[in-house]
Amino acid sequence: MATVMATVKVARVSFASRLKKSYMLSPQRSFSALKSAARTTPPPSVSTASGQASATTSSDVSRKSATKNEKKTKKALPPDSTKDQLKQIESMMNMANTSNLFPTMDMWGTKLMTLDVEIPRDTSLRLLFTNPGAFWQAKQHNFSNWLKNTFSMYTIAKARAFTGVDCDFRLSHLFLPRTWRQLGNVTSYSSTSWLAPLRRIAMDNYLAMGHAIADKDEATLKALTTADHATKVNKIIRSRKAGQFWQWKVLSDVSDKALFQEKKLFRSLATSPGATIVSIRSGEVYIAKEPPKRGNRLVIHALVKIETTQEFKVFTKQGQPVEAKSTEPHSVVEYLVFEKVGWYDNTWQVRDQIYK
What we know:
Blueprint: H1 2-25, H2 31-39, H3 48-76, H4 81-98, H5 125-130, H6 132-159, H7 177-183, H8 196-215, H9 218-224, H10 227-238, E1 245-250, H11 256-259, E2 275-284, E3 298-315, E4 330-341, E5 349-354
Antiparallel strand pairs: 1-3, 2-3, 3-4, 4-5
Helix pairs in contact: 1-3, 2-3, 8-9, 9-10
Region (Disordered): 31-84
Organism: Suillus luteus UH-Slu-Lm8-n1
Protein name: Tim44-like domain-containing protein
């Protein structure tokens, strides 16, 4: 009997000492883990070997339960995202405060994604009778695009950032019907529209870019396109076979007479307008305390629909056409995104092409 009691004491002492050592080595274990380990401790056996085995088993169980409790505690604690947000705000404030120290460096010239310009969807009466669900979805899509267009036009007008137009916009002008005719009609073909100069610039830059591709003029392409789109265009130029010459022409009318037309009710346009702005977005990206030395704080993206009749020819060195089909004129419709960075002294650049 004395031998059995001694064995029991040895087992209890060995288990307690192991438990104490394990928690002294890992002070981060919670008190609930100790309670769970105490609850899962089995009664000591009669023999010394079985006592040691039960102590080892109970210590493993305590470690597992403590690990589970630690995981639960970590999951219960939300991530400290507030500190990360404060760090981002602090870094932006540092950029705003130190922008004057580096006048030759553009702190705000970061790479931007294309804003959410959208191609309008078809809402013809034929679609209403054939597929009413698609018709109403298209209506909702176009209405959302119109709201974004109107708000972006208001942002541009407030910053007086329209190219070639001095609109002299004030908040009191919002009560005038003519102001809303300007803000809510980005597709206007009128020469008095606030976006009329942009339509002329978009068409001219489109023609210059097409001729530059045909002539392998990379310097002009660099001025008319952003870095990402210039990479795509240069791939087209370098894919040309050696000894070939390209000739690209626009046969449709792209003059001011065709570009600026007064649209009348129940009467279609005489000719294709060539360039139509279907979506526009703007955002204030330059957020330094001091205004930029030139221009404004906005970045503007305009989605322009280009409709032209083109002719593309490929010739050899001897002047012989490579393909007979390439000589046939064909109509082309493209949707190009033009970008204007307000504090840069450059023209509207093509930054992307969107497909319908």
